[in-house]
Write a structure and sequence with these properties.
The chain is of the alpha/beta class. It contains 14 helices and seven strands. Helix 10 links the parallel strand 6 and strand 7. Helix 2 packs across helix 3. It binds guanosine-5'-triphosphate (GTP) and magnesium ion.
Amino acid sequence: MVDNIDQLYADIQRGNENTIAKAISMVEDGTKDAVKLMKKVYRNIEPAYLVGISGPPGSGKSTITQSIVQLWRKENIKVAIIAIDPTSHFSGGALLGDRIRMDKISTDQGVFIRSMATRGSLGGLNSSIYDTVLIFSLAGFEYIIIETVGVGQNEIDIVKLADTTIFVTVPEAGDEIQAYKAGLMEVGDIFVVNKADRPKSKQMVLTIEQLVSFREDKNIWMPPVLATNALKEEGITDIKKRINDHHIYLQENDLLQKNRREVIRAQMINLMEKKLNEKYISPILKDQKFFKHIELICKKKEDPYSVVNELLLL
Ligand SMILES: Nc1nc2c(ncn2[C@@H]2O[C@H](COP(=O)(O)OP(=O)(O)OP(=O)(O)O)[C@@H](O)[C@H]2O)c(=O)[nH]1
Ligand SMILES: [Mg+2]
């Protein structure tokens, strides 16, 4: 229990690292205090600028993130990084330690790195991810980067939260890129072909340029395709500049607010599903009656459609 939510709020606002970490854990656990805190946060805080960085495993997302963050830090800009754990909610994140090793920035006071699970305990997209974004915003972080690995629906849902989405790939990923076309390729605002020290990177840039040229909104924001060598920090200033360009573009076209309305909409749906689950579905799952129905359905004496209607009083 927290004695005083206003005190907690003030400590986060002052940037106290322990309090920030504690608040995020509270939000992840969905405690009553977290709800009290978030009510106040939602009513007072504008979200910081949110950058999503996604792409196949090992493409260099963390290395690029680290380099961009270093550039922002030179301007004294505080940055928070949320690394989404692609494994299950219960993995404990052992694997993640390697995934987000960012030695050059991990001890910097102006940088906060946090890992989170993709899925909440009920299986849907973890609604605490956006709450965490708001907590970081309250704490005065000006940029928040969300790193996700992979290209599934979860990743797409997460990058949809972002104001600017960067899709990172590597020169050898030719065939995979065709497969991604229907997914993340559609939502990328900036494309990066990393590991440009390897052959075929120019070819890959051309392939992606061709793919994005078919996008319907091409006359509005044409996503740039950049080649980088993150190990040598080559091309990173260009990414930073393009993030800025995209930010300005969103502002000038009233798209920043539009994106945020969509995020709130998604967050509302998330919360409603969670509440319905807690109030109506979870108790049923714990009831012996539920298991009896399963038996009867297996024995062909009942059917799921009728039983579900009966259980939910529909
Ligand atoms: N040759 C080369 N290697 C790179 C480059 N950028 C990153 N790497 C290496 O690629 C490996 C993976 O880099 P990460 O930054 O961890 O990649 P990631 O996309 O964050 O990986 P996951 O989070 O596991 O999906 C590391 O060994 C990096 O040192 C690059 O431009 N060239
Ligand atoms: Mg990584």
